[in-house]
Amino acid sequence: MKIGVDRLRQEHSLPPEGYKALLTCRDPDVLSYLYAQAREVALANFGNNIYIRGLIEISNCCRNNCYYCGIRKGNIQVERYRLSRETILDCCRQGYKLGFRTFVLQGGEDAAQSSDWIEGTVAAIRGEFPDCAITLSLGEKSREEYERFFHAGANRYLLRHETYNKEHYRQLHPAEMRQDTRLQCLQWLKEIGYQTGTGIMVGSPGQTTEHLIEDIRFIERFSPQMIGIGPFIPHPNTPFTGSPSGSIEQTLRLLSIFRLMHPQALIPATTALATLAADGRERGILAGANVVMPNLSPQEVRGKYELYNNKASLGAEAAEGLAALDQQLSAISYRIVTDRGDFGKYKL
Ligand code: SF4
């Protein structure tokens, strides 16, 4: 099966049965080989540099009710908050001093943070931090809204498709949410010129190997600049409480597959990985990830942005824990860099 790994590294693609063989492989030698090949490709493209992104969770209010999400509209246990523009700018100022050159504004689809407000906030960050990248992760918007944010200074947009299979999408989302809309949004983002990120939850309820193959083939065609993959972790106040978490091994396997498919993609070792295992972040990096996203949100709101149970936001997951993060990374011979870390052709 190592031949399949070599072929993926050389051709960046496999037939569906090749992906199936890798996704169901139980041979530890083959899996070690897969991770090692992905790691080599990441090292060849980025050296031992790990890009850091400062994550600012700007609102935990959302109009949607995704069945897997802890801040879904239907969860009445959540204490809701939204950050003011000035608080967000303060987070950026603090992050800039710590060395961050990318700010990621993430939030639910919150009508109170209007397009005018988002546009103004992006413009304010752009004005004060002209050398930084601004990433948005604010869900589905109209093409016109995406254009306005882009022209105000946003560079990147993260919007996970979660699953490419329509029936599976229906199992994870209420009827009013349409997968076609999500895919249309991704297309617009790319056309507008954003460095665009998509991705999936691994091990979400109802997910099969066939679904994962559909996801891989979609990502192969779409060729995003950023790929976010994290294990599903159930939240107690959702319909999926009691469902098992996704596996770290399957997440790492997919991470390596995506690294071999897209050698230059920006692939984070996600917080969900670090939440499931103390060494999850390091294992993600050793399987080919090259980005980490420490939390820059104000301390007092971090516990309120709980997408899944016990989400890590302390220690090396926190922006102020950068020294601890650097130490953890140097133990595996990697280092934090403060470069903006743009995708290939988008470099300044
Ligand atoms: S996953 Fe995103 S869109 Fe869905 S409920 Fe949670 S915050 Fe809202």
Automatic annotation (TrEMBL):
- List of residues binding [4Fe-4S] cluster: C62, C66, C69
Q: Where does S-adenosyl-L-methionine bind?
A: E162, R182
GO MF, one example: metal ion binding
The secretion signal range is: none
Record note on cofactor = Binds 1 [4Fe-4S] cluster. The cluster is coordinated with 3 cysteines and an exchangeable S-adenosyl-L-methionine.
Q: Which UniProt keywords apply?
A: 4Fe-4S, Iron, Iron-sulfur, Metal-binding, S-adenosyl-L-methionine
Which GO BP terms apply? sulfur compound biosynthetic process; water-soluble vitamin biosynthetic process
NCBIfam families linked to this entry: rSAM_HydE
What protein name does the entry list?
A: Iron-only hydrogenase maturation rSAM protein HydE
Q: What are the leading ranks of the lineage?
A: Bacteria, Pseudomonadati, Bacteroidota, Bacteroidia, Bacteroidales
